[in-house]
Amino acid sequence: MKQHYIMPVGVDDFRQVRQEYYYVDKTDFIKSLIDGHSKATLITRPRRFGKTLALSMLYYFFTMENKEANRALFEGTAIEKAGKKYMAFQGSQPTIFVSLKDIKQANFENMMRNFSSLMQETYYLYDYLLEGDCLNATEKEYFNSIINRKSDSVDLQKSLKNLTTWLNRYHKKPALVLIDEYDAPIQYAFDYGYYDEAITFMRNYLSAVLKSNPDLDFAILTGVLRIAKESIFSSLNNLEVASVASGRYQSVMGFDDDEIKQITVDFHCPDKLAEIKKWYDGYNFSGTNIYNPWSVINYVLHDCRPSIYWLNTSGNFILKELLKRTDKKQSQELHSLLQGGSVSVTIDEGVIYSDIYKNRNALYTMLLTTGYLTQASKINTEDYDDTLELRIPNREIRTVYEKEIINRIEEMDGNPKLLYLLKALLSGDAESFAEELNDYLLTLVSYYDTANRESFYHGFALGLMALLSKKYKVRSNRESGYGRFDIAIFPEDKSKNGVIMEFKVAEKESELHQTAEVALSQIDDMEYMAEFKNEGISKVWKYGVSFCGKKCAISAKV
Fold first, then answer.
1. Which residues contact 348 (CB under 8 A, 6 or more apart)?
2. From the centroid of its chain, how far is CA 386?
3. Which residues in the chain land under pLDDT 70?
4. Cβ(49)–Cβ(294) below 8 Å
5. C-alpha to C-alpha distance for 115 and 267, rounded to whole angstroms
6. Which pLDDT belongs to residue 226?
């Protein structure tokens, strides 16, 4: 098949991509499934990572419909090159592909109408089952009720299971079932307040086809979240989960390093590798490095112009609600991530909706699974305890994160206190800076936190500086002169003021001011100004900051 060199933005039908667009070969996924698969596999990935296209590929390979025409779609691909052993499976079994991504309704009645329409369209594809005596009179009556949309929610719960039964009976082969975005109806039901009705339906709809079904060969499901495990999948002891945190099939969705290199060769832009990596790389799926495919495709399509392509590709009501409930410690952690730091958290991928707002780990689980954060390093699978170090993946997501996460927190705070603190800091208003900083210490910090001494205060202050990242470079613990400064702020505009801060911890509150003076003197004694001179910044505010418990004192000069 001829290779096309037009990027498929928003195209998730495998046949259309192969016939009209550039295709990054993911057919090794087929080989891995033929080599061995679980009875049911759930693959969770963020929005726009190619889940629908992957399932569409499986459908066109395995389905018995239009077998010869579909075979041409795999010419020159990895699965064809793997040999006759694997291509013998092409067009070999009845295959059902349903996508639930568009079932997004404000009430349960409309959700059922959507399901009725979806199953009507699905049954139409197999109306040949009505011919002859494959189905008895009662089964034909049921089949027609689905096609004529006269079935109720109880009938719809078994509609997918019944279809596998009849296909197996007709073809003498168990069916392959592909379910895309299984969690979309559940998320919308939770958002709009009919979760209990929806979860009952979805539990019965999925369990009927996936649990103890002799007419099922195997099933692949995709989604963004693995929540609702206890509500839907608790009875499925044959379910394999391949998530962003653990499991197989790491590079099936998204682009890996080799694929990115080939893209730059094919589109004559190998000099853009570093830029692509900076902007769109950085995801760590079970130890495999992955690029955001949606963003890379748009980047190439737009003449290699780096931009924010992933922004607002999905709305997430639960994430917004979780952000409303962030405690002060989480708010500080979320700010500090913008400075390139990481946060160590326990991930609970099996949290259920009814408990999601009671679970402190749910926020970071949501940020990980939806693509705002990723693992900072490869998991040690021999000692895996659900505790991960998370970071922001790349420059694009850093900007998205600031717009959708940090700005939302600031909006919900309902006051400009942080902005006022930063304005005082940059203008040399030491008195106002000290006042605001003391207020933050009083409201955000516990005495338990301060037991970590200077390292805690350092991280606390660094987190408060996160919003400066647009127009300033914030550096921490860097060598300059004869030592290492604590925090330095370098303006992009060289005519503006820089800031350098040195921190000390006083043993007693009565020593706060004296300790602040010592910290201020250290800035000059150790010649920390050397890096500012190298950067061409002439005016710099110097701050000596001392802490004791939940109080601080500041000495400053220019």
1. 359, 361, 362, 365, 386
2. 17
3. 2, 227-231, 234-235, 312-322, 324-325, 328, 350-358, 360, 377-385, 404-417, 443-454
4. yes
5. 42
6. 75
Enter the tokens of residue 102: 């568009």
Look at residue 255 and give its three-state secondary structure: strand
∠ CA 350-356-316, nearest 5°, is: 95
Q: Is 132 exposed, middle or buried (0-12, 13-18, 19+ CB in 10 A)?
A: exposed
HSE on the CB side for 473, CA within 13 Å? 10
- pLDDT at residue number 516: 94
Q: Can you give the length of the chain in residues?
A: 558
Euclidean distance between CA atoms 532 and 377, whole angstroms: 33
> What domains, with CATH codes, occur in the chain?
14-242 (3.40.50), 253-414 (no CATH), 417-557 (no CATH)
Over the stretch 259-268, which tens digit does the pLDDT of each residue have?
999 999 999 9
| pLDDT value for 361 | 74
- Residue 201 has, within 13 A of its CA and on its CB side, a CA count of 22
pLDDT at 38: 94
The b/e string for 42-58 (b: 16+ C-beta within 10 A; e otherwise) is bbbbbbbbbbbbbbbbb
From the list 557, 480, 482, 488, the residue with the least C-alpha distance to 525 is 482
Measure Cα distances from 171 to 234, 244, 245 in Å.
Answer: 31, 36, 38
What confidence tens digit (pLDDT) does each residue in 473-488 have? Answer: 888 877 777 888 889 9
Residue with tokens 């295709």, as numbered in its chain:
23
177: helix, strand or coil:
strand
| DSSP β-ladder status, 472-476 and 487-491 | antiparallel
DSSP one-letter string for 257-315: HHHHHHHHHHTT-GGGHHHHHHHH--EEETTEEEB-HHHHHHHHHTTT-----STTS--
What does the pLDDT read at residue 448? Answer: 47
The CA distance from 202 to 387, in Å, is 30
Radius of gyration of the chain (CA): 28
Name which of 431, 477, 473, 472 is nearest 454 in CA terms.
477
498 conformational bin, left if phi > 0, alpha if psi -120 to 50, beta if neither: beta
Provide long-range contacts, Cβ within 8 A and 24+ apart, for 297-304. 297/7, 297/8, 297/9, 298/7, 298/9, 300/7, 300/263, 300/267, 300/269, 301/6, 301/7, 301/9, 304/269, 304/272, 304/275
Q: How many CA atoms lie within 13 A of 277 on its CB side?
A: 12
